[in-house]
Amino acid sequence: xxxxxxxxxxxxxxxxxxxxxxxxxxxxxxxxxxxxxxxxxxxxxxxxxxxxxxxxxxxxxxxxxxxxxxxxxxxxxxxxxxxxxxxxxxxxxxxxxxxxxxxxxxxxxxxxxxxxxxxxxxxxxxxxxxxxxxxxxxxxxxxxxxxxxxxxxxxxxxxxxx
Length: 162
Description:
With 162 residues, the protein is mainly beta. It has one helix spanning 13-27, and strands at residues 37-45, 53-61, 64-72, 76-82, 87-88, 95-96, 103-110, 113-121, 128-130, 133-142, 145-148, 152-153, 156-157.
């Protein structure tokens, strides 16, 4: 069975079909047009006995939550990707890519035992390091709990890419 599509040019239906297709193509919200954002969380493990540490970083944005977990016995980095798509401009038909985290939650488990959770405001604690790339101040995890490192270096916030 052969199916063929035929548009009649003589009665103006072709222009109507093309206009409808163009309208649909420009007005459908497509989150793929926005670059994804990434928040990097540097974790410094300060346990005395070298116990494995499991850290979960969870980002809260106006458009939802994004989380990622990682574990290790020495310093490591967790990179949490998130969608920056926020809305579609009804007038112009393009995407607004301004969705940013408001709060970062960091929880840690040492040797199977929860040691604490930290809530950090995103603004002021995560400077921009590239297009849609942010680095949260380093998090220190030990048997006593989870805390932000307060150390500042000359070039900005202290951070390790180990």
